Amino acid sequence: MTSRPTAARIRVLIALSRPAVALLFTLYAALGLAQAGHAEDRLLLAECLVPVMAFLLCSVCVNDLSDQAIDRVNLPGDRSRPLVTAAAGSRDLVVMAVVSAAVALGAAFVLGPRPGLLILAALAVSAGYSLRPVRLADRGAVAALVLPACYVALPYLLALTATRTALQARDLLMLLGLYTGFIGRILLKDFRDVRGDTLFGKRTFLVRHGRRATCLFSACCWTVGSCVILAATPRPTLVLGCSYALCLAAALVILRALAGEVGHRREEALIAGAAAIGRGMLILQLAHLAMDQAGWGALARSTGVGALLVLVLAQTISVVRHGPATDLTIAALQTETTPSPDGHGRPKADRPAARA
Question: 124: Cβ–Cβ under 8 A, 6 or more apart, which residues?
Answer without folding.
Answer: none
